[in-house]
Write a structure and sequence with these properties.
Elements (H helix, E strand, L loop, with lengths): L2 H9 L8 H9 L3 E5 L8 H24 L15 E5 L3 H13 L4 E4 L5 H12 L5 E4 L7 H7 L4 E6 L19 H7 L5 E5 L4 H11 L4 E5 L7 E7 L3 H14 L4 E4 L3 H14 L8 E4 L5 H13 L4 E4 L14 E4 L6 H8 L9 E7 L3 H12 L3 H13 L1 H15 L9 H11 L3 E4 L2 E4 L10 H23 L5 H8 L12 H6 L1
Length: 509
């Protein structure tokens, strides 16, 4: 069955987009690929279609064998011939949505992650061992589980897909230590053809991804970086009130859904309340918010309302938007400075995916730089800090259970409500296998990975994040060169004309 036929049968598309077909052909030849493609431009198809290809050919083989078989067909010999597409992803929150979407398309897809119950995990492991899956999503730490390794050894991994591949690099904007073992994991499962996928990666990060994953026969595909429909503008402002003035003016001018991103939940809530008090957002301009401190039911309601609306303004933290399938967002406004050009371009790129004109606005108050610096500091806690949190959970668990994260903050001697180092440390400890979440509290295990919490690794990563913030600030402050052209050059894509739509190009014109 041809790739075009599979594309139509499983995904209901008549043609491939961009480099998708070239990537898939590279994979089916048994070679490696590095794919840089913006969110929403079809990265997942690059590994989902091979899964459909393997699944389809096994079904054809079964039918052919049943025709020529005498008596009852022995299907047990076929059960492991399909092979598996194994997807490594750090985003547990998105896995179930991705699995449900794939299963609706007819793919035999499942996920295994820590948020599942033991009975559900056992069921998936059985399906895996029996060769009943064509597509499986897991997080890297799953490879520490003997039960998973045993089930995986029963099947052939035909393709390893590493999603959010920039997480493997210290020089990336979202380095995760648990990704640092992926080269060893790939070796462990027989060095299958591998596709590494990310929305944004500088040339340095691209080289590091290839090196860390030990890819040899690899081809890089840099597709879809160009966003000619985007108009980017930076507004120099001096207060939250001035930002709210600009937001209200933009809302009156822009028709369609808008996302306004805020780095800090506290600032988001303050701005949201101030706009509500003004009364300028009425039924004509519905307003919602989305952030991690809201109850799950509230977040889900806000998300669904935004999906279904054609004119809503959503105040959100950057976590909103990962996996969001809404093509008609007309503007993305950043209320605070992003910590990197990678994060900024990924977030602003959620506007205009339908190809129609869209806008990106950055509301720049230079005092926000200190907030961005704090944000980096809190997201990269010192190894000694992480170790102390681990020891408190391990040695004073009853007090931790009674007081929760407030107890940990108190013992760590800091009281800034915006400082989320404790939460970051707990997440890192869980990924490292030192803590396990039981109910609403963590329990310490007798595991400490010194390499995972290396001081030298921390220092390199912290320095890299501050360099990215400096590059972001320089891009925002400069008024000499086209904004889009500078972004393309930052990601290694040169030879572009000026966009003639950003604030710099319009001012020069």
């Amino acid at each position: 069955m041809s790739l075009q036929s599979i594309l139509k049968k499983y995904f209901d598309f008549d043609e491939f987009k961009g480099d998708q077909e070239k990537v898939i052909q590279q994979i089916l030849k048994g070679k490696d690929a590095l794919v840089i493609m913006p969110t929403g431009f079809g990265k997942s198809l690059c590994y989902q279609l091979p899964a459909a290809y393997f699944q389809e050919h096994q079904e054809i083989q079964k039918k052919e064998e049943s025709v020529f078989a005498t008596g009852v067909t022995d299907t047990t010999k076929n059960k492991n011939k399909m092979g598996l597409v194994l997807v490594l992803s750090p985003l547990i929150a998105l896995m179930e949505d991705q699995v449900q979407s794939a299963r609706k398309k007819g793919l035999q897809a499942r996920a295994i992650h820590s948020a599942m119950g033991s009975e559900a995990r056992e069921k998936v492991l059985n399906e895996l061992a029996e060769g009943a899956l064509s597509l499986l999503y897991v997080t890297p730490e799953r490879f520490r589980k003997e039960s998973f390794l045993k089930a995986l050894s029963q099947v052939r991994v035909r393709l390893l897909a590493v999603d959010e591949a920039h997480c493997i690099s210290l020089w990336g904007h979202d380095f995760r230590p648990d990704y640092s073992k992926l080269g060893e994991i790939r070796e462990q499962i027989g060095r299958p053809p591998t596709v590494a996928l990310t929305a944004t990666a500088t040339p340095r990060v691209q080289e590091d991804i290839i090196k860390q994953l030990q890819l040899t026969d690899v081809q890089s595909f840099l597709g879809g970086m160009e966003r000619p429909e985007l108009s980017l503008q930076v507004h120099d402002l001096f207060s939250l009130e001035a930002k709210i003035d600009v937001i209200c003016e933009l809302r009156k001018k822009i028709e369609g859904p808008i996302i306004i991103y805020w780095s800090l939940i506290g600032t988001l809530e303050k701005a949201f309340a101030a706009i509500q008090k003004r009364g300028e957002f009425t039924e004509e301009f519905p307003l919602e918010k989305y952030h991690g401190q809201m109850r799950p039911a509230e977040r889900n309601r806000s998300q669904q309302s935004f999906y279904q609306s054609d004119d809503m303004t959503l105040f959100a933290t950057p976590a909103f938007g990962l996996g969001v399938d809404k093509s008609n967002i007309r503007a993305v406004i950043h209320g605070e400075l992003s910590t990197s050009l990678e994060a900024y371009y990924q977030e602003v790129g959620r506007a205009g995916r339908d190809g129609a004109s869209a806008e990106g606005h950055l509301l720049l108050d230079e005092e926000d730089v200190s907030i961005s610096m704090d944000f980096i500091k809190w997201s990269c806690p010192e190894p000694s800090f992480v170790r102390k949190v681990y020891q408190l959970v391990r040695d004073r668990w009853d007090e931790y259970r009674a007081g929760g994260n407030d107890f940990l903050r108190r013992e760590m001697n800091f009281y800034n409500s915006r400082d989320f180092r404790v939460e970051t440390a707990l997440n890192q400890l869980e990924r490292a296998g030192s803590l396990i979440l039981k109910g609403t509290h963590y329990v310490a295990l007798d595991i400490w990975n010194e390499e995972f919490f290396s001081q030298s690794q921390h220092e390199r990563h912290f320095k890299s994040q501050n360099e990215k913030l400096l590059a972001m600030l320089r891009w925002a402050k400069q008024v000499e060169q086209c904004r889009l052209k500078l972004i393309y050059e930052y990601f290694g894509s040169a030879h572009h004309e000026d966009c003639l739509r950003c604030d710099v190009c319009l001012e020069r014109a």
